[in-house]
Amino acid sequence: MVSPEGSIVGTRSLPHATVDDPPWRRHDLVGTETWLLTTLAEFATRFELLAFVTSGHGSAGVLVREAELSSEAPALPMIDYEQALPEDIRAAYAPQAGGFFDRGSAVMLGATHQARQMFWIEAEAKSDFDKADWFLGVPQYWAWRLSGVAASEVTYLGAQSHLWNVPAAHWSEIVERRGWRRLMPPFHPAWDRLGRIRPELSRRYGLPPGLPILTGIHDSSANFYRYQTAGLSRMTVVSTGTWIVALSDHADLATLNETRGMTCNADVYGRPLGGALTMAGREFAAIAGDGAANAKSSARILQELIAQGTMAIPSFGQDDGLFPGSAGRGHIAGPLPRSDDERLTLAVLYAALVTNECLEALSSKDLVILDGTFLREPLYASLVGALRPECHTAFNLASSGVATGAALLATHGMSNKVPLVTLEKPEPFHCPALPDYAKEWRSRVISEQHRFQTT
After folding, report:
1. DSSP state letter for 374
2. What's the CA gap between 97 and 81, in Å, rounded?
3. Range 224-248 burial, b when 16+ CB lie within 10 A, else e
């Protein structure tokens, strides 16, 4: 719940739940919907609800039938994007996925990419697939469930769906080749009021009968929109959590390299955003270890790790990220950390180095804004600032960027008031050995990449 001024006034959360339903591992949409509507009903007793808007990560969609609107669950699943694909589906999909800008990214892990999920469902359950009316990104799925209006939206389709070519502003090659245009509803801006809440939901849950339902938005694009509405530009926003997602409004699209985890996303107006994407949050947890919750990072330990040449070499997850061929090969070079504090500090250092690689790949030279969970460690922002002295590095400690950015859509174009964003400057980190350490780290990473690719 966000006030019209942009303050978070209430929060509820639900643990992520999936269901094994062979051949898919799917999201529990029925359980989520029950929770969502009962929670909205509880909020409606405390607040005047002015609008409803959903955001979501860019790797989820649902095939629906209009006749199912009154039923509890769609006949076809919302697939968990981390589920492994059958080998025949994986091999058959890649040649049909089009060029880089058709996809907006490399072909990534598991069942990532909405086009690949559609391809799998079509192969596995063609008769049900053929009966579908619409394919909806997950924010638009919830907008449809609540309003009854189906919509496509550019930030969500532009988030590695492999369905929409952002620079050319047209459907990707695979959509045309497979005849999927019929499944794509009309486009609406993220801020559009698609309709009002369905009367039966309003009656059943005691919700305001006139509650407007907005189209919805991709999560990282919502966070980026928050800074756009504050009047900022020529910026790279680095959101941190399970993934590092770096988005730049001034990257040269010609330099985007899909083999290095680079992406082409869209802002709310459909304009291209150069991006870099890597699952650094999972890597952070792997390096920091089980004792991270009770550990403390420090500048003293950081200087010692740098002086002794202890390095975390990527990648510690099942995704290559920015380092082709590195998935699952992460290791620590040099003297090993001897305590939980040292492991946590090394994880912070690694996160800053990977962030710097994202910024380097995007040629970020102007404003760099850091936000998200990595800022729980103050050394993170200081290190990024020290690694990129040519940039103006700032950070935002507000932890609700996606929610705030999404909520700002409700007042899009309604007021000349510019939302305030509080940016802070990181504490300087002075370590004369850091530049040489960073160069040596990059040299080792490149050397390991060459070795992986030749073996």
Report:
1. G
2. 17
3. bbbbbbeebeebbbbbbbebbbbbb
Structure tokens at 277: 């994407």
Query: Could you read off the pLDDT of 345-385 as tens digits, one per residue?
Result: 999 999 999 999 999 999 998 999 999 999 999 999 999 99
Across residues 103-125, what is the average pLDDT? Answer: 93
Q: Quick one: CATH architecture of 18-215?
A: 2-Layer Sandwich (3.30)
Within a 13 Å sphere around the CA of 225, how many CA atoms are in the beta-carbon half?
32
Residue with the bigger pLDDT between 375 and 75: it is 375
Work out whether strand 244-248 and strand 392-396 pair parallel, antiparallel, or are unpaired: unpaired
3-state secondary structure of 2: strand
- Residue 307: predicted pLDDT: 97
Which of 147, 83, 81, 145 is closest to 112 using CA atoms?
Answer: 81
Q: Where are the domains of the chain?
A: 18-215, 221-454
Tokens read off for 191:
């801020």
- Measured from the Cβ of residue 177, the count of other Cβ atoms closer than 10 Å reads 11
pLDDT of residue 108: 87
How many angstroms from the chain centroid is the CA of residue 175?
Answer: 23
- Asked if the model's pLDDT at residue 73 lies above 80, the reply is no
Report d(CA 49, CA 39) in Å as an integer: 12
Task: Give me the pLDDT at residue 281, please.
Answer: 92
> What's the CATH architecture for 221-454?
2-Layer Sandwich (3.30)
Q: Is 209 helix (H, G, I), strand (E, B) or coil?
A: coil
pLDDT at 288: 97
Query: What does the alpha-carbon distance between residue 270 and residue 266 come to, in Å, rounded to a whole number?
Result: 5
Calpha distance 451→444 (Å, rounded) = 10
427-446 pLDDT tens trace: 999 999 999 999 999 999 99
Helix (H) or strand (E) holding 228: helix 219-229
CA distance 327 to 324: 8
Beta bridge partners of 306: none
Q: What is the distance between the alpha carbons of residues 197 and 200, in angstroms, rounded to a whole number? A: 8
Residue 26 per-residue DSSP state: E
Residues comprising the chain, all counted: 455
Q: Do domains 18-215 and 221-454 have the same CATH topology?
A: yes
The three-state secondary structure class of 314 is coil
DSSP 76-139: S--B-TTSPPPHHHHHHHGGGS-SHHHHSS---STT-SHHHHHHHHHHH-HHHHHH--EEEEHH
The HSE-up count of residue 53 (CA atoms within 13 Å, CB side) is 29
